[in-house]
Design goal:
Layout lengths: L14 H10 L5 H5 L5 E4 L14 E8 L4 E6 L2 E10 L2 E8 L2 H5 L6 E10 L4 E4 L2 E4 L5 E4 L8 H11 L11 H7 L4 H9 L4 H32 L10 H5 L8 H15 L5 E6 L5 H14 L3 E5 L3 H14 L7 E4 L5 H12 L5 E4 L13 E6 L7 H8 L6 E6 L5 H7 L4 E5 L10 E5 L4 H13 L3 E5 L14 H10 L7 E4 L5 H12 L5 E4 L12 E6 L7 H8 L10 E5 L5 H12 L3 H12 L2 H4 L18 H17 L9 H14 L2
Parallel strand pairs: 5-7, 10-15, 10-16, 11-13, 11-14, 12-13, 14-15, 17-22, 18-20, 18-21, 19-20, 21-22
Antiparallel strand pairs: 1-9, 2-4, 2-6, 3-4, 4-5, 6-7, 6-8
Helix pairs in contact: 6-7, 7-22, 7-23, 9-10, 18-20, 19-20
């Protein structure tokens, strides 16, 4: 009998072609199909008349087709099919995009159920690409994320077939289910796809949310426990005081505490796996430098990996100047070095003539070998995945790992996102750190803002303008970086030195632009959020952010952190024409605070965890049904059960916990991609 792990192509009704389509959605087994949860549901007993519907909300309408389907070829590859449907309250236009098969099934005079969002005004209402069903459906039905090649109805049919297969053992032990009032796996999967009632849907969802967070936290706890049992390079002698003698400034008490935490880890005989969280300007680099110095003085090498060449060069310059005359030798390895330079650096590294190697992804290449790697440091860790961190650490034996993040994350969320790491927080700022004046205005201030920028450029300063998009988007009334650059370079800032920076440029192109900006060859840099993680340009004193309402608070704070790095007063101007009260509330949080951790807490409350996870690799599999923002209480409950379970069965060796261990092994495979 087919089971969870059976390849999806062997499910009745699939075959090779459909299997390829399903696999493009991440559905490669019967188990992953069953975990491909509906994005929405239609309750066919909840019918709304056309003229009682609110706009832009999903509704179910029962209406009769009162016109023949018309075909309109807009352009090659785009065909619109439209017709009119009416109920007792009025009529609406139905538009289908490239859905010839569905359009051919629509019969004049027949009645259908239409599920989708109404748009338009009082006299003309339109529903675009709705789900369309024959009248006679009843109950609650699932709606899946579909495509032109695989409709929601197709997925629904296949899921019904999959539910008749063997579902495997329940990964949540019976004792945990009983204690928390959770339904079993079979009930949960059946009712998340085909709920008998709204109550059974709620029960199924609660159980599956708990399961996802329970497995995730158990897996991360086991990973952390495993790392803690490994023996690392023992760093016996503490050289912190000697390191402090090299500095031209005193360490803050927070920096000193975090260095001590790192040393305690490395001196314990176990492998250090620690995350340093600190706001922009809190002095994380000094902490990393101290740990590298202590490691070098104990006879081991350190690797310091940064996401861009220009950031790697900056770290190399800082460390080289700091350690000059100390006996600690630094090296730099990036992709733009000549073949000869790379060979020499790699030779010095393998022979132990370099104590601290700073570099980019170039450090991960197979032919980079160390003599005695003891410490791997990753800067701006959200630019690197778990697998990349692990690959760097694997170049030594049980290497100590230190990762740094300038993106403050609420502690509850950080414990999940970085569940395999111990966390240190630098919650104090060096004396003399500038506060940045932040203003919120609408687009009517553009002329005054441009004059403000020109005034500072005339004084020899530099500025940023950040746009949310790279290219123009017809659906959004938002200026793109490309469009803005063209407009300003030919208009307001004609004759000035402008630069353009965005994510679609190659790494070399980005580095070249940032280098010119750092060298003061560019006065005004138009950019997207690619500058969120950048380099120190102390001469840049203005940050203007267009359409600020389209950014998360933590992202705005990160962007603002690009300025205020020198002796000159700095200002950040947020531009938004949004009339939303929520937008005003969010932007006022940024205006009122320069504390990244406070802003992060507000961001989590207002917007959820998306800004912290982002689109980059963060080392976690995508959550299928749980949500960190709305399911925090379940997260805590599941965490408490994990801790209790591992006290009794540290390695999940009992018969009752074997299905959970198997689920975690599957999770590890996803983590390691």
């Amino acid at each position: 009998m087919a089971s969870n792990n059976t390849d999806i192509r062997y499910l009745k009704g699939v075959g090779e072609k459909r299997a390829e389509i399903l696999k493009s959605k991440g559905i490669d087994t019967i188990g992953t199909l069953l975990r491909f949860y509906p994005r929405d549901y239609i309750d066919y007993s909840d019918i709304t008349p056309i003229y009682d519907c609110f706009f832009n909300m999903n509704v179910c309408i029962k209406a009769r087709v009162t016109s023949y389907v018309s075909e309109d070829k807009k352009r090659p590859g785009m065909v619109l099919y439209s017709f009119t449907a009416e109920d007792s309250s009025g009529s609406m236009q139905v538009v289908l995009f490239n859905q010839k098969y569905l359009a051919n099934k629509i019969n004049f005079g027949s009645e259908y159920l239409f599920y989708g969002k109404l748009e338009g005004g009082y006299y003309m209402r339109t529903m675009k690409s709705p789900e369309i069903f024959e009248v006679g459906y009843s109950g609650i039905h699932p709606i899946y994320k579909a495509s032109a090649k695989m409709s929601s109805k197709n997925i629904e049919k296949l899921t019904k077939t999959a539910l008749s297969c063997s579902l495997g053992d329940d990964p949540i032990p019976q004792s945990v289910r009983d204690k928390n009032g959770l339904c079993d796996l079979a009930f949960a999967l059946e009712n998340i796809h085909f709920p008998r009632t709204k109550e059974s849907l709620a029960r199924a969802k609660r159980r599956l949310v708990f399961e996802e967070l329970f497995i995730l936290q158990t897996g991360l706890a086991l990973l952390k426990n495993k790392k803690r049992t490994l023996s690392g390079s023992v760093i016996k002698r503490d050289f912190k005081a000697e390191f402090e003698g090299l500095l031209s400034f005193p360490l803050t008490s927070a920096q000193s505490r975090v260095i001590d935490e790192c040393f305690a880890d490395m001196a314990s005989g176990r492998v250090m796996n620690r995350l340093i969280q600190g706001d922009v300007g809190s002095g994380k680099t000094a902490v990393a430098a101290a740990v590298c110095y202590i490691t070098a003085k104990n006879g081991y090498q350190s690797a310091f990996m940064a996401p861009t060449e220009i950031l790697a060069e900056q770290h190399f310059a800082t460390l080289s100047a700091l350690f000059e005359g100390s006996g600690v030798k630094c090296g730099l390895l990036t992709g733009s070095l000549t073949a000869k330079q790379k060979r020499e650096i790699k030779e010095d590294l393998s022979q132990g003539r370099i104590d601290i190697i700073v570099g980019t992804h170039a450090l991960l290449t197979d032919n980079v070998e160390f003599n005695s790697l003891g410490l791997a440091v990753t800067d701006e860790q959200h630019r690197f995945g778990v697998a990349q961190r692990a690959k760097l650490a694997a170049k030594g034996k049980n290497t100590h790992t230190l990762v740094m993040s300038a993106t403050p994350i609420p502690r509850t969320l950080a414990l999940i996102i970085h569940g395999d790491l111990d966390i240190s927080i630098i919650d104090e700022y060096p004396k003399g750190r500038q506060s940045i004046d932040t203003y919120c205005v609408d687009s009517s201030y553009h002329k005054r803002i441009y004059n403000f920028i020109k005034k500072h450029i005339a004084e020899g300063r530099q500025a940023y303008i950040v746009c949310p998009l790279v290219e123009e988007n017809e659906e959004l009334d938002i200026k793109s970086a490309n469009e803005y650059f063209d407009e300003l370079s030919k208009g307001e800032f004609k004759g000035y030195s402008l630069g353009l920076l965005h994510g679609k440029m190659s790494g070399k192109e980005k580095d070249a632009v940032m280098r010119r900006f750092k060298d003061d060859e560019i006065q005004l840099l138009i950019a997207t959020t690619v500058i969120e993680v950048g380099i120190d340009v102390p001469n840049a004193v203005l940050m203007v952010i267009e359409n600020a309402d389209r950014f998360g608070l933590s992202q705005l704070h990160q962007l603002r952190g690009r300025i205020g790095r020198g002796k000159h007063k700095s200002s950040c101007i947020l531009i938004s024409d949004s009339k939303s009260e929520e937008t005003a509330k969010r932007l006022n949080v940024i205006k009122a605070s320069n504390d990244g951790f406070n802003i992060a807490d507000e961001d989590l409350k207002l917007r959820g965890p998306g800004d912290f996870l982002g689109n980059r690799q963060h080392g976690l599999p995508d959550l299928k049904i749980a949500d960190f923002a709305s399911d925090m209480e379940t997260l805590r409950l599941a965490g408490a059960e994990v801790r209790a379970l591992l006290i009794d069965d540290r390695n999940l060796e009992s018969k009752d916990n074997r299905p959970l261990r198997e689920a975690i092994e599957e999770l590890y495979q996803k983590l390691n991609g």
